[in-house]
Amino acid sequence: MDSSQRERLAPRQSNQDKLSPGRMDGFRFDSTIGIRNAYGNNNDPKNDISEGWWLLQELNSLIKSQPSAKITIAEDLQENEWVTKPAFFGAGGAGFDAQWVSRFYWDIHNAVVVPADSSRNMFAVRDVIEQRYGSDAFSRILFSENHDQVHADKGNLRLPDAIDRGHADSYFARKRSTLAAAIVMTAPGIPMIFQGQEFLEWLAWTDKTALDWSKKDSLIGGKILALLNPSMNHAIASSLRARSARSATEPYFR
């Protein structure tokens, strides 16, 4: 086996070691667009990396072949339906169960951050709720916050602060950010909540600062937790161990 073969098989072996029951419930693949295209471009065949696409197919096929069900999620952000098409039987897809939907984030974000109702594009909100990859709504990971969009080092803001800068605990900041989360939790797809969002954390995220857990039990925080009923909380706790197919009832915590 030459060095290039070992390099191609190393990620496969690494993931195989994590697939035994009780080890992991699933995998999120970061920046799959960078794996499949040399310049991170979508619909750019001349710079596509065929070995990268093959690697994604191989890893997804390996994960799907295991007796315990595991979900695979692509942080691709390019709205490419081939990412979530099957990889087996010559279907040609990358084989992921679901992918992050950047369009959903931006259309919901833009609708809630503007102060005037006349500035909200409700047609865009409608269209992105109805959007699908093929016919499968649950191939979509839906979110109104994620680690990139609320990262302090990138100068980004949490949604409540983006709605009312410097007054993230104001009435409109609380109501509209919670409304965005309600759309995430109820639109067809798999909802993803970013850490602290469930109790209305408004400080931009950094791995150097702990969450302010006092907000969880305050009158301001904790509102999004009410969207998670007891049966859904049980689903989160048991996660994907009993999962044999995609489900809309299991939020994805990032």
What does this protein structure show overall?
- α8 links the parallel β5 (190-193) and β6 (252-253).
- By secondary structure, the chain is of the alpha/beta class.
- Strands 1-2-3-4-5-6 form a six-stranded parallel beta sheet.
- The chain has eight helices and six strands; from the N terminus they run αβααββααβααβαβ.
- It folds into two domains: 1-98, no CATH class; 101-254, no CATH class.
- The longest helix is centred in the last third of the chain and has 16 residues, at 171-186.
Which short descriptors sum up this protein?
single chain, 254 residues, alpha/beta, six-stranded parallel β-sheet, 8 helices, 33% helix, globular
How do you describe this structure in short?
This protein is α/β, with parallel strands linked by helices.
